[in-house]
UniProtKB/TrEMBL annotation:
The lineage of its organism: Bacteria, Pseudomonadati, Pseudomonadota, Alphaproteobacteria, Rhodobacterales. NCBIfam families: frr (TIGR00496). GO terms for cellular component: cytosol. It comes from the Bacteria. Belongs to the RRF family. The keyword Cytoplasm applies. This is Ribosome-recycling factor. The gene is frr.
Amino acid sequence: MADNDIEIDLDDLGHRMDGAMTALRSEFQSLRTGRASASMLDTITVNAYDTVTPLNQVGTVNVPEPRMLTVTVWDKQLVNKVEKAIRESGLGINPVMDGTVIRLPIPELNEERRRELTKIAAQYAEAARVAVRNVRRDGMDQIKNAKSAGMSEDDQKIWSGEIQEMTDKHIAAIDAALESKQAEIMQV
């Protein structure tokens, strides 16, 4: 096999690293800052009709005010289950029931809770870094396999450099996202 026939799929590695960034962004959206955001409720599931169902599939989530969320539950029988799911979600929000509408006043975050949330954000970022490094390791394993298939040392160095550059770019993006999220959380 000639050197030109051996290629490493950088697109696949890039997509997988991008996937880690996408997952991180969605985890960051679920973290509560001082402002109301409909995405805060994305991780909440409700036991509806003997199935675990995402909250946004049993009701409409709205943000009528900067510090208020409302959930309009479509099925009256699920209102109590939705209220219980929100109460037990760990978001620190006390739902107020009003018929099929559940109001969620977003309280100010105290300093201790802000610090806690920045630590959680850092844990999410570290998990994303680990995912990116795992993709990097897979790419390096592909290079090792290609070496045994006849890839030259020069080509190995080129591919290794490209994978490392891609990894560094994604790690920097994760660090920037974390810094931004932590600043948003600490903003009073």
